[in-house]
Every structure is written in structure tokens, then in C-alpha cells.
Amino acid sequence: MVEFGGWNMPVQYGPILDEVRCVREKVGLFDLSHMGRVTISGPDAVAFVDRTVSCYCAKIAVGGIRYGLLCQEDGGPIDDVLVYRGVDDVFVVVNASNTAADLDWLRKHTGDFDVEIHDQTDELAMLALQGQNSAAVLAKLTDADLGNLGYYKHTHASVCGIPDVRISRTGYTGEDGFEIYFPCAEAERVWAELSAAGEPEGLAPIGLGARDTLRLEAGMSLYGHEIDLEHNPIEAGLNFAVSFKEEKGDWIGRDALQRVKQNPSRKLVGITTDGKRVPRQGYPLYAGDTRVGEICSGAVSPTVGTNIGTAYLPLALSEVGQTIDMDLRGKRQACTVVALPFYSRTR
Amino acid sequence: MRPDDRKYLPSHEWAKLDGDTILVGITDFAVEELSSGNEGDLVYCDLPEPGRQLEAQETFGEIESVKAVSDLNTPVAGEVVEINSDIEEHLEILSQDPWGKGWLVRIKPTNKSLDHLLDAEAYEAHLAKSH
Q1: Which of A25, A120, A188, B92 has the fewest Cβ atoms surrounding its Cβ within 10 A?
Q2: Strands across the sheet with A177-183, in order?
Q3: Does the ipTM exceed 0.85?
């Protein structure tokens, strides 16, 4: 167990690499109750989100979900978030470690918007089922029509007898899967029922360690690693989450990010290492004697079969196939730039 | 109880007198912390070149698992006269036999005394207190 964003969280329930394989091959159950959950309601909810988040909220159909970023004026992200468009509200899922900062920022920018911001983090539990057997497991305990719930869509249905549970076909692993939100008093019972229901499908509980490897293999950014106040979403390759459409109107960070888009100086790349050393955040990268970047994230990847990492490199060094050196206290290890994501289930 | 035929550092290395030299390894606790009980989680061990002179408590290498990297610190000053080169390709030895076959380096000490180190009882007390 470790302290994480003020929560006591399991890094692993079993061997990390076994947990990764279980999600890639079968199904895993994650307790994500540390993630922040915020409901924005009121007549201006959608307009307010369009002012403060980088994706185009008004364009999301009711029941749809988009990934976006909460940015400062200079384009530096305060957080990355999932935006759930509801009938008359917007539900936003944020990183545990940024929840307080996000709430402060949102409340500071309500201005003339007629909105209410309701922090539901402590009211709701959040569990995720991830892996190709997720639907088979969840179907045993819900009356939702999972077959008709598309990727990045959400609905409300009964789960384990609890009415009106929010179910989304989302996740942070690169696999098919679901995230569910329900009153936290029911958390232990739902966890137990999902665990039991998933036994025939090979379900195992999955900790933060494997979750980090899974998201990295799938090329998904983690706040504090690939993105932070100094690392903007354009250079991180998150253009899909940043809307410059006129109709979205002006939003915080738009102008700065437009300038970055016209003239980026670096790019987030994947790297694999030829040796045994595992890339870790902060390890410097060299081209010859010149320091050209540093590692953002790294992991042993059982899916790819080598050690993997992410790093920002100058554009001239960011082409696939480029070799660079990772420095480990004076010892060099050769690395190769590869395409992101490292793993895609549809590839 | 850990073996009392050797002495310990709070950072989980052990030192054992073997003739004129001292064998250095890491404790079962260190291995467990790094590997979480799964020997496949250990991925790399970096040991020094024989001939290297070490100060007491100097970092002489690194051991890496899936989740973390840890320094290896020497309990005694002296010259590295031999390294256990089996370890590099067979890290599972550390899980299986940290007290024997899992030794890491053999040091010709500048001073053979291990009196400045924790005995097994004190090391156990250190573990109980800090974990």
C-alpha cells in the first residue's frame, strides 16, 4: 500500500507483470475511488466547460464522453480530464492529486456563468473493469444494454441492485472495459460481487503499478509525467483533445496552444531500450555529448516484450528509428525512438 | 531471526567474514521489498569492476526491479576482489538464497572489524521499528 494523492492505495495485489497480462488476456478489477468526480450543473454548464476545458463540449452528444485538458492561459495543463455530457449537466472525472487545484481553478473562473460545481469525490465510489472479458462479467450484474453502449459512451442502469449507476465504456488500459460510479457505502459489496462474478472469466484485482504499465503501453499520458504545467497537450500529441473551432468560442489557453501548434519545438515519443535497464522518470537522454531530453515514464512491458518509456525530444531527433542514449549515473544505454502507442488492441 | 554469523546495515546489506575477506549481500527483506515476493520482478543488478576501492557505506552498485531501483551500499571499506557474476543473469538466486549463493561482492577490507554494524538482533529491531 502507498499514499497516493491523499489516498491509501495498493500498488499491487500480486506480481505486477502478472496483473498486466491478466488485463491484456482476460479481465481486471480496479478500485479508482481516489479519482476526483465533479458535477457541473446549471443553465451554463456546457458553456462553462467550453470556456475552461480544451475539448468542444457543446459538440458532445448527450451520453457521449470526451478527453480534454484544463489549461492555464499559457497553455500549461492544470489537469487532464474526462468530460461526460449529461442531459442537463456535465460530469468531469479528474486526477486524484489535482482534484483540489481543479476545483479551485473552476470556481475561480465561473464569472458570469450560471453554474453549480459539486464535488462528488467523497460521495461516489469508482470501479473499473478492464479487459476483453469485461462485458461478460458486468452483464451478470446489470440490466444495462452493454452491447449497445459504444466506446466513450455512458449510460445509467442498475448494477448489483443499485439503481441509476453511471456506467461508461472507458478506461486507461487500451482494452475494452467499463468504469462505474455509485454511492460509496456500497463499494465493498460491489467489489465483492464483481470479484465473484468474474471468477470464471479469470478476473483479478489490479493495482496502481500494473495500471501505470497498461496505460503506458497504450500510449496514454499521465499527469505529472507526460503532461504538467510545463508540458502542453500539443507537444504531447493530444491534438485530438484540443479544439480550435470558432464555434467553441474563446477558452483559457487557446491562444497559447494555437501558437505552439504553429511552431512546436519538441515532441513526445516512445522509446524502447536495448538493454535490461528500465527507463525511469527524470533519466537524462543524450545525443552524443548533448543532453536532449529526459524520460517522462518507463516500465517493463510484458506485452511488448521489452522495456519502454516516453520522452520529449527536439523535433529533429523525434523520428521513428532515431537512436539516443539514456544516461544512468554515467553509464549509457542505447534507446530507439518508436511509434506511440506501443500497444493497440485493434492494430 | 536472520543469521547471526554476519552483521547488517540499516539499508539492508549484510557483511560476513570469510577468511581474510568479507562477503557482502542484501537481506531477504531487501529482496522482498524490491520483488514483492515474485522473483521475476527483479530485472537488473549492476556490480562494480574488481579492483575498485570503496569507502564504508559507499554505493557500489544498483539493483532494479519492475517497480524501483535501489542503491547497493558497502558495509565496509576496502577493495573489491571478486564479484558474483552469476547474479547478473540469474537474479532469482537472490530470492532463493540471499544469505549464501546470493552474495554480491567479495571485499578485501582495510579493517576486518564489523563492530560498527548492526547485529542480527539490532537489525530485526530496526525492521520492526521502521516497517
Answers
A1: A188
A2: A154-159, A162-168, A177-183, A124-130, A28-31, A204-205
A3: no
